[in-house]
Amino acid sequence: MTAAIFHRKRRKLKSEINVVPYIDVMLVLLIIFMVTAPLLTLSVDVKLPSSTAKALDNKQEPVIVIAYPDGRLGLQLPGDKQPRVVDNAQLAEQLAPIKAQQGEDLRVLLAGEADAPYQRVIDATEALRKARVTNVVLWTNAR
């Protein structure tokens, strides 16, 4: 017997990526986005109220209270160039005559120095509450 020699035909490996399935997926996604995009632009007309009221003209300068990192408070009264350093009890004492004069119109700007922890600002708010000051605004850009 003769030995049968089998020659196998070797297939050459393809190094190409078949992109047809990817194109199909992209076309389906494109159709989905084309259908849903007009639905996302629906809006509701809102008619805002209008008013002829003018802003309040308050000519009084506000009192400025500054919370320092070490727990002290700075009090700058109208007309003062620099804030004076006070503690919580002195703050109530010095604000009492101004509060009696201006009443509920007393405006206080409360500022905290950049290094001061937020707890110091809360402590200053508590001191202002004890002084019965109700119109307090947090000042975000002090000095």
Automatic annotation (TrEMBL):
Keywords: Cell membrane, Membrane, Protein transport, Transmembrane, Transmembrane helix, Transport. It is found in: Cell membrane. InterPro entries: ExbD. It comes from the Bacteria. It is a single-pass membrane protein; Single-pass type II membrane protein. Gene3D superfamilies: 3.30.420.270. One of its GO terms (molecular function) is transmembrane transporter activity. The chain crosses the membrane at residues 21-42. GO terms for biological process: protein transport. Belongs to the ExbD/TolR family. This is ExbD/TolR family protein. It comes from Pseudoxanthomonas helianthi. The lineage of its organism: Bacteria, Pseudomonadati, Pseudomonadota, Gammaproteobacteria, Lysobacterales.
